[in-house]
Design a protein that fits this description.
Elements: H1 2-11, H2 15-21, H3 24-36, H4 42-58, H5 65-68, H6 75-80, H7 88-95
Amino acid sequence: MQFLMSLALRMGRTLGELRNTLSVGELMMWAEYDRENPISDVRADIRNAQLVSAIYGSQGVKVGIDEATLQWSSSEEEADEGDPFAGLEAAFMAASK
């Protein structure tokens, strides 16, 4: 679901518009592109974590990128939330086969 939301934001569309205008093949191409070049803000978070790690490292403190990456929510919180669209991406992928 996160991928679809990020794609909609980047394209300036709603989820409904994506659903009505994107073919399954195009969605799969976007998903593959996202694997190589993340569409979401994850890339910026990783870049910032690299900077934090480098700055701390220059001062003699070892901070790994995993430790410096922002944690927006815990996995426990994500498990508790019921995502009504959880199977949407899987359905698109299954429909393309």
